Amino acid sequence: MDKDTLDFFDKFIQIRFGDNLSQERLKKEYFAKKLQSNTLYKYISFDGNDTLNEQKIFAIKNNLLWFAAHHILRDNDPSEFQINADVTEIARRTNWTEHKIIDFLRTIRELYDLCCLSNRLHDYMWINYANNYSGCCCVFEIENAEMLMPVLYCDKEKTDFTKEIIDFFNNP
Questions:
Q1: Count of CB atoms situated within 10 Å of the CB of 99
Q2: Cα 109 to Cα 107: distance, rounded to the nearest angstrom
Q3: 10 Å Cβ neighbour count for 15?
Q4: Would the pTM count as exceeding 0.90?
Q5: I need a labelling partner for 126 at 20 to 30 A (CA). Which of 92, 97, 109, 138 fits?
Q6: For the purposes of burial, counting CB atoms within 10 Å of the CB of 51, is it exposed (0-12), middle (13-18) or buried (19 or more)?
């Protein structure tokens, strides 16, 4: 697991909700360490789906990025946006009902669409995300790192978020 990213999220969840300046400062500091030449990469595959290939080419020609809803990403990763937590324990230790907690977690999943970028050129990315070097890689110069959020890869089936959710509800 990436220690820098883990440290980022440990600090990020301690920032009071709505303190955008502190969040932006933390992101800027994190990405200053992570980005080489202030650049991110988007690997793109082309396959037998002509309609999808045409949409990708159109986006590239028109300087557009596409974002995917979390449920679409589940084709690649069935655990995408999986949040394991003991809802009964959260309700017991906060002033929230189980129903409100479940609705909140569902809302969090539905709120964001994702566009995944990499901070480096890497053979693994070419092989897995650009059809074994038959796709392409777009290079993006980052002007505003505050709009980005790092990704922390973890085994979501083995990760229990109960404590973090309780902390969030008790320290809004």
A1: 10
A2: 5
A3: 14
A4: no
A5: 109
A6: exposed
